[in-house]
Amino acid sequence: MEKIIVITAGAEPFLDFSGYKNAQNINIVHDFDVIDADELMCLIFVKADEYARSAERLRGKKNKTFVYSFVVFGPAPDSYAGWELQTISELRTSPLSGSELEFTINKSFMAMDKSLQAVLREKYSEAMLEDTRRDQDDLINIGRSLSIEKDPQKLLSLILYLSKKITGADAGSIYLMEEDEDKQKWLRFKVSETYGRNIPLTEFVMPLNKNSIAGYVGVTAKVLNIPDVSKVAEMNLGLTHNNSYDEQNNYITRSMLVVPMLNHHDEVIGVIQLINSKEELSDEYRGDEAFNVLLDSKEAFDRYVVPFNEKYNDLLQAIAGQAAVSIENNTMMIQIQTQFEEFVKASVNAIEARDPATSGHSFRVAEVCVAMAKAVNEVEDGYLGEFHFNDTAIKELEFAALLHDFGKVYIDLNIFRKEKKLFQKDFESLMMRLDYLYRCVELSFCMQKNSQSERDLLLAQIKDIKDKIKLLNEPSVMDGSPDEIIEEIIKKIKEIPCFYPDGADMDVVTINDKENLSIKRGSLNIEERKEIETHVTHTYNFVSRIPWPAGYKDIPEIALRHHEKLNGTGYPDRLAGRESTMLQSRMMAIADIYDALASSDRPYKSSVPMEKILIILKEEAANGTLDPDLVDIFINKKIYESVAKQHA
Ligand SMILES: [Fe+2]
Ligand SMILES: [Fe+2]
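Above are the sequence and the fe (ii) ion SMILES. Below is the predicted complex in structure-token form.
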């Protein structure tokens, strides 16, 4: 504590310093400007008519921790208005002799010392009060923050950050408890932070026992507040400090506060270890010492590191308790999420297993959709620049894509498996009727109802009809109109006498055969196509029944629209324009078509080469069925490559 004597102008004649020994080595000056120390006691000799001016100059320095006292010379004023009488130790009309001066100086500094102690106590109380207020604010925020953070690693960092902030710790680590198959418990070093240093963290495990400080707290579930870790042996806990970390990182571990993280059942699930409190409750207190005071030299460690305030023993344990609950909730939530995700995937697998031709389709569509969403996130301009998919939105899209064809479970499997225009049984019975016709012709010849040449001609015709029907039955596009070919076949058959044994006429080619054989593209007729199209509404109805959390509420709508087309030719509602469907559905439409073309496992369709697929997608965009901006992204960002690689 610095002591100063100021002799203001005009006061000199009243002071006899000749016999003053200045045993305390007090600085004697003639101007207030030298008063710049943060803590000091100041005795001012001043003439009465100078008092007001001097007092005014001192008032400006009141932010400092210092006390001062006046010895005033001269006649008493008419009025003491404006005088701070508590700062006046003496009012004299006569000069101070040598011995009087010595006595006055000693007496004044003793009195000032007392009031300085009072000031410091008051400042400590103020700082303590301010710290408690900040701690309370932090506690309120902690509860909220911990319940909001969903990412487990970020949650741990947040817990550590808040613990350090409250206690003013320079460094800290969090260990989490683990149990192996042999029921042996371990502490896993999960997160660590030291202010102003970037020390790379390597996760490691150590056995849970009392050999280490963190282990001790993990075993005993008791808080350890160690004022000086170099003297930890004196605490008789059987602990010693391993300073290899300090040596490696040029660090000095001094004070430590180590608390267990207890869950609802009072079981230790982890340990928070805080090192080197820098929180000095003085008038320098700012509340952000943890992230403000840099310990970069031995002097800095000596100057700033203090033991952890005892009040944090309970407070930090309360925080650790909240943290434990958050970690457990978080773990449970992730577990439930993972289980649900696995359940969805298993269900999708089960459905796709019904039809090996489309196996893996939903998973691949989901991958393409996720890759496209991430690519959209990188777009800065154009209408896509306005979209951003956060983690939840990407998960929502992934679920929607996984489930987009779930409604197919409600559709007759035979339709999916229909490889040719006629179902196998219909084809076989048509062939049997033609064989019967063949026999009828032979029978007629035996019964001498027709000549040999007529017979041969008819039999050749039937053979030809069978060949034509086999060809017609193929789903590939054929030369000529199938309708004309069928009409011609029917006409020819009618010319061949054919009858049931009871004499009734026989329809060799039924209406059903005719309808199916005249399919122009693929193997499905209009009704079958319509039935397949209902899969989107089935998906919607099914997926809507799942009580999705808030971030996933659009899953039914996204999945419902994956066959809508931009120009209004899609299904189920023929919605036109970008405004009428969600971007996610339009991405899914591209992913769906891409996979249908790229997969080699569709019935009677070999995979289309990539160059051809890209041309088809571009054409679809040009025709107004697919979103051209999204097709551009799909092609330019080579989404297909990243997905193809994963399946290579
Ligand atoms: Fe679909
Ligand atoms: Fe699909």
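The pocket of fe (ii) ion (ligand 2) is lined by residues 361, 365, 404-405, 592 (CB under 6 Å).
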